[in-house]
Amino acid sequence: MRRGGVLMRLAVPAFVLITALALFAFPSARKHRGPVNPGGGQVVSLNDLGGPPEDTSAHVRDPEEALSHPDPAAAANGPKAKSPKAVGASSDDGISPGAPSDAQVRRDLRELYGSASGAAGQTTLDKRGLAQVPLGAPDVVRQVIAGGNAIADFPYVWGGGHGSFQDSGYDCSGSVSYALAAAGLLDSPITSGGFERYGEPGRGKWITIYANGGHVFMYVGGLRFDTSGRSGPRGSRWQTAPRPTAGFVVRHPPGL
To answer: So what's the pLDDT on residue 162?
Structure first.
């Protein structure tokens, strides 16, 4: 009996040690806690949302969510966006077909804004809340604008656009990711914090991205693309009003 008791006392620590080694060697054997609820105000990774496994940057809840008119119910019942690559490659971008003359552009601008503003390189906003490609813009900028137009009035949903580019609602980083992906400037969605390391530092000629750990927005040809500050749940992400940029890291796509 004594010998059996000693063996039992030795066996228990050995079992614990073997189990611990197995869990360390085989991560899949660890207890899976499940994805963090994006609506719970916690930190969530792209892996939790079904994103690419190589991107492990944290997706911190957007501190400007209340300014973005969140509407998860509308997103749940709404259609999903097209693939951003398909949007960027097509002419279905909300931009008037054809190549209008400078005189036509000036007439349209006077009708919209009562002035002859909108010089070459300046993106303008039409009555539908869609961005118009500026004169002299390279094709890649046209594609980014096409991507932004495709989801301009989609509902805001925190975490939206990260499990897949084709979603029915987008948060700030999901929105910027989608627009850039339409031009082939991104292969997969990244978080607001991830944009702090995207591309090159400083302002760009055509596209400038402002990012921090919780929020990201960008200017394309001088026109702001941002989920915060929209006029309502289905207001356009394209906005003419400027906003403070203190506390944001400034980046731009290479060459743009």
So the answer is: 94
Task: Give SS3 for 156.
Answer: strand
Q: Are residues 11 and 86 in the same domain?
A: no
Residue 47 lies in a domain: no
Q: How far apart are CA 143 and CA 121, in angstroms?
A: 15
Highest mean pLDDT among 25-29, 87-91, 97-101: 87-91
Among 58, 53, 50, 57, smallest CA distance to 34 is for 50
Q: What is the rounded CA–CA span in Å between residue 118 and residue 144?
A: 19
Beta-strand pair 131-132/58-59: unpaired
Give the domain extent around 208: 64-252
50 occurs within a structural domain: no
**Residue 57: pLDDT band with limits 50, 70, 90:** low
Task: Say if 43 falls within a structural domain.
Answer: no
Per-residue pLDDT of 121-130, as tens digits, reads 799 999 999 9
pTM attached to this predicted model: 0.73
CATH classification at residue 231: 3.90.1720.10
Token pair recorded at residue 160: 């939206």
- Residue 111 covered by a domain: yes
Domain count, the chain: 2
Residue 211 belongs to what H/E stretch?
strand 207-211
- Does residue 131 carry a pLDDT above 80? yes
- Among 106, 97, 94, CA closest to 131: 94
Question: What pLDDT is recorded for position 120?
Answer: 62
